[in-house]
Amino acid sequence: MAISIIKHNEPQPPRIVVYGPPGVGKTTFAASADKPVFICTEDGLAQLEVDHFPLATSYEDVIGYLDTLINEEHDYKTVCVDSLDWLEAMIWERVCKDEGKESIEQIGYAKGYIYALNYWQTILSGLNALRSKGMVCILIAHSIVKPFNNPLTDPYDRYSLKLHEKAKAKLEEWSDCLLFAGYKVAVRKGEGKGEQLRGVGKGERILYTEERPGFAAKNRYSLPAELPFAYEHFIEAIGG
Fold first, then answer.
1. How do strand 205-208 and strand 177-183 relate by DSSP bridges?
2. Cα(first)–Cα(last) distance of the chain, in Å?
3. Per-residue DSSP letters for 1-66?
4. What is the largest CA-CA distance in the chain?
5. Among 45, 80, 192, 233, which residue is least crowded by beta carbons within 10 Å?
């Protein structure tokens, strides 16, 4: 049987997961993309004037909205899911319904979180289908500070996706760009005797694209480690 070899891959739109603290501008970043449409699992659009589906209140709503974008004609170029941590709660609710439990913790041996991965995969498959139709995928999440057990050093705290570890690993692997949005901060020592270290900054927002001790990040586009936090700078850096 002859095997066909693909010599050159056609460029695909990026699959982006962007996370950071509240109010840093994650939703504004996504809303600045080319012809976006939002699937909202939380009421976070505020005063942004962007097209969006009705607020999703269940996992089934999200699947329905993805199916609409996959199967119906439209001119949207970007699909945005806001936010992943609220979507995770809907997935857990669906797992509990399937298993006849009131809490995902009641499913023995932490199997509930494994079952949830099947629902995550269905959503990611839908997003992959939209990507194959030429749509950029932007998934928004909140951040949380967690201990990080680095086998090469003592444990230390770092920013991470506010998701269960199994879901977090799946989203990080799926994404082409895992981006941490934060503020430029410098640490200074107080002038007085015994003064503690303190963080100072001018509110400059930065998009971090490579992993550092303080946060998880990655990209598949050889991006600079830091970019100004605006979609136009990001899309220019990956070549449009």
1. antiparallel
2. 39
3. -------SPPP---EEEEEESTTSSHHHHHHTSSSEEEEESSS--TT---EEPSPP-SHHHHHHHH
4. 78
5. 192
Query: CA dihedral defined by 72, 13, 233, 23, rounded to 10 degrees?
Result: 60
pTM: 0.90
Inter-CA distances, 161 with 139, 170, 171, 174, Å: 11, 11, 9, 14
Half-sphere exposure of 43 (CA within 13 A, CB side): 1
pLDDT at 1: 66
Reading the block at residue 123, the tokens are 């959503």
CA distances from 158 to 162, 200, 223 (A): 12, 19, 22
Please answer whether residues 210 and 218 qualify as being in contact, where contact means their C-beta atoms are separated by less than 8 angstroms: yes
Query: Token digits for 132?
Result: 């194959």
